[in-house]
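Notes continue from the previous slide.

Worked example: a multi-chain complex. Inputs as given:
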Amino acid sequence: MALITVTDLVLGYDSQIILSDLNFKIDQGDYLCIVGENGSGKTTLMKTLLNLKDPLGGRIVTGDGLRRNEIGYLPQQTAIQKDFPASVWEIVLSGCQSRCGLRPFYGKEERKLAEENMERMEIKELAGRCYADLSGGQQQRVLLARALCATRKVLLLDEPVAGLDPMVTSQMYDLIAKLNKEGITIIMISHDISAALRYADHILHIGDKVFFGTKDEYLHSEPGRFFIEQQKGENKDDR
Amino acid sequence: MIDKLVLYFQYPFVRYAVIVGVLIALCSSLLGVTLVLKRFSFIGDGLSHVAFGAMSVAAVLSLTNEMILILPVTVVSAVLLLRSGQHTRIKGDAAIAMISVGALAFGYLLMNLFSTSSNLSGDVCSTLFGSTSILTLTKNEVILCVVLSIAVVLIFVLLYNKIFAVTFDEDFAKATGIRADRYNLIIAVIIAVIIVLAMNLVGSLLISALVIFPALSAMRLFKNFKYVTVFSAILSVICALMGILISILSGTPVGSTIVAVDVLAFFICYVAGRVKGGVIG
């Protein structure tokens, strides 16, 4: 059984439908990139996958023993976090919270898990530092370590490289690819189509035309070719 | 000076005032950090005005136990205000401002129209700026305050890690299965209880100071959530104690003296934070 199966999903706010008849499935170990224009419903889809929002219709079924609260999430930064007085250690440890249930304090097991994931993200020496004082790339590593504490299977990443410089961006992508090789399923929202094509093995394109399939299929599909051309054009304009 | 204090402390009402003052300062500072970070600094102000409105209604109805009315009304308002942070048409700050001034106006209007007291402006002034009522506490009121304070501290300590997770990143907390709404509700109820308690001490206009100043002072010095919380609690207790002692010795109003000490402490922390460039701890 697939890890996550989405059938006939309808997304939107109140009665306004953004996207309907969405079907796709994600298997253990996949690297799925969700691409599409702004306003096409990428963030809404992610919120629905995370159970933050109810779908207007359709179903999301998790399999392979994955519980709905076992999805690790790397959100975009919020304004509150910019001056939040919290140490890296406190933040990473807070990823273990869902494992605690109603237990009020963290136990040895949670501390160990947090330490392991900080090592994994190479941020162990930052443990006592204040989150707000870190660079953008370091902050993303902290939030990744936190997300890893919450899951052993799936990571959902919402624009993980937004606002990072090119050097740090490629380090971030390498890090995500490494996690994927270790067996963690990656679901990533991205603006960056070239990175999506380089790292992902599956593409979900949402917008006027919906496409779901492997990267190679996408490259030869109509929405794929159109979108790639368009993005290239935009990138040229930027320069 | 010491002699004078020893003399004063022989009176039970002075001891009661100190106990209650310190406990309220402790409780109010605990949630201050969360409220400041969630951009709800003014909720204390809004809720205390609601409590003032409710108190006026209770006075008009000549209820013997005003708490029966004040506490539920304030709790309900707190729940509504903290909920409104997310998806309502009137945004958080506007909602707080609206309820705050609305309740203040209605409270004063009611007191004016139906007052039985001969010294109306005195009554109003003492509810707004804190009164001598902290010096006229009965033993039962002190016991009630002690019990509620212990409950608040206990709940806060038990929920500390969850409150941190929900404050730092509500979406992440929800996505990983933490019932964020439930904890927001608990925070709202606790803050309402604290405010109703604190009205006796500093009055409804100055309550915000007890909630936010210790937190803001601690945030100048520390950049770690646990240290900020602990330091703001300690600072708040020290300031309240100093404020009460100064007011006893020099006959100044209790509430505003405590707040003045809080403001002073903030400036000291601000300067210290600038000089040290922020201690990590």
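Summary box: The interface with chain B takes residues 47, 50-52, 67-69, 71-73, 75, 78, 80-81, 84-87, 90-91, 94-95, 97-98, 100, 104-106, 128-130, 132-133, 146-147, 150, 156 of chain A (CB under 8 Å). Chain A has a mean pLDDT of 85.
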